[in-house]
Please model this.
Amino acid sequence: MQKLTRLTLLPFVAVTFVLIAITTQAYSQNQDVEQSYKLGPGDMIMIDVFGEDDLTMEVMLADTGIINYPFLGELDIEGMTIFEFEQLLISGLKGPYLVDPDITVTVMQYRNVYVTGEVQRPGGYPYQPGLTVEKAIAMAGGFTERASRSKIDIKRQDDPAAEFVRTRLSSPVRPGEIISVNQSFF
Model:
């Protein structure tokens, strides 16, 4: 049997550190999305109240942004972060209903990203953390032969003017945004 030395283990250790760094970065990016993500119509969320099966449920956020929750009635949660929504539930249920509620809210399915214009299959596609313009276009079947690879516009959800702005293939995409691939003029 071959004796392992430090030099033989060095490549394995280096690869392990690289994999840990990549995993940590991806987890960090997903955490950032989760913490800053604002709930909106089309999101499927899971409300988990520890030890209270009657208060644990999956809810699809309707166009109004309002959900009906036991004991609390109608709650307008559109535009809230997950943390803000958890705090709303905790403060509403604490006291008369539960002594110390342990509540976790998770986005089970994000609202769609829409890709229009010169792509093979225009339409809505499920958002995934880490999504870029290029990946969204790939989900839509890629460019048509008439597509411009440099004239791509995006309508951001957080843009108050809600106008299309020029973007790059490497730009990040958030749920609910619209990507438009323009035609190339040869």
User: Anything to note?
Assistant: Residues 131 and 173 are 6 Å apart (CA to CA). Residues 26-31 have pLDDT under 50 and may be disordered.
